[in-house]
Write a structure and sequence with these properties.
about 240 residues, alpha+beta, Alpha-Beta Plaits, two-stranded antiparallel ribbon, about 25% strand, Guanylate cyclase domain-containing protein
Length: about 240
């Protein structure tokens, strides 16, 4: 096993891919590849130097060490959104392509036998698959792409360089409970903002506490009110203090 390398990692996934028939999936794959190639070229990114693991409905990419993180974070998503808008014009709803993009950074082993062993890779894939990002893209029907970045990327790139303004991001707790994943992240939807600048994100639903049982006797988890006869024919009444 070779030493790991610190890299920017990008995960891209297509919304509602599995709902398409075989023909539409084939067309979507062709269009996805073309759009990503054109978007990278327009954003000044050398896609030929990316290590790409395709996934049919998207891809995982390990970027080269010399990549401009500002270009990846600040330029790629807006260009992808515009190219998708042009592509989707006139298409039936089931044929349109909308993408989720996630960006993180960390140590990656490039010599894996069947992929890229890396906590950073797992992290970026979880961000991309988080219900919070999916919900935001569904809610902003006029958008064609949504971007989520990790806390470290937001702090190192967005805050300092502001190619995309920090107030155009919404802070979320990205969670996938069944995979024991929870992380602070930031979501941006190109061209879709509210009064405070960031995309509309639903607040976590507050579950009210269960009401306390009414006054009465508790007998192995059973609350009684007044005399009660149990299966053994014993009768219990209110005890007196």
């Amino acid at each position: 096993m070779q030493d790991p390398h610190r890299r920017v990692v990008v995960a891209v996934d297509m919304e509602s891919y599995s709902k398409r028939n075989n023909v539409l999936q084939h067309r979507a794959q062709v269009a996805f590849k073309q759009i990503m190639e054109h978007a990278c070229a327009e954003a000044g990114l050398d896609r030929n130097s990316w290590r790409i693991q395709p996934g049919g409905d998207g891809e995982l990419a390990i970027l080269p060490p010399q990549v401009s993180e500002r270009a990846v974070v600040g330029r790629l998503a807006p260009v992808v959104d515009r190219l998708l808008r042009e592509h989707n014009q006139g298409l039936a709803p089931e044929a349109k392509i909308r993408l989720r993009l996630a960006v993180h950074q960390g140590l990656v082993h490039l010599d894996g036998a069947n992929g890229f062993p890396s906590d950073a890779v797992v992290h970026v894939c979880r961000l991309n698959d988080s219900p919070q990002l999916k919900q935001v893209l569904r809610r902003h029907r006029g958008a064609n792409a949504a971007l989520i970045v990790s806390e470290s990327v937001y702090r190192d790139v967005i805050v300092h360089y502001q190619d995309l303004r920090p107030d155009q991001f919404a802070k979320v707790a990205a969670e996938i409970p069944e995979k024991n994943f929870e992380a602070t992240a930031w979501i941006h939807v190109p061209g879709e903002t509210t009064g405070d600048g960031g995309p509309r994100v639903d607040k976590p639903r507050q579950v009210p506490p269960a009401p306390a049982p009414a006054a009465g006797q508790v007998f192995h988890g059973v609350t009684t009110h007044g005399p009660t006869q149990f299966g053994n024919h014993n009768t219990m009444g209110h005890s007196r203090g």
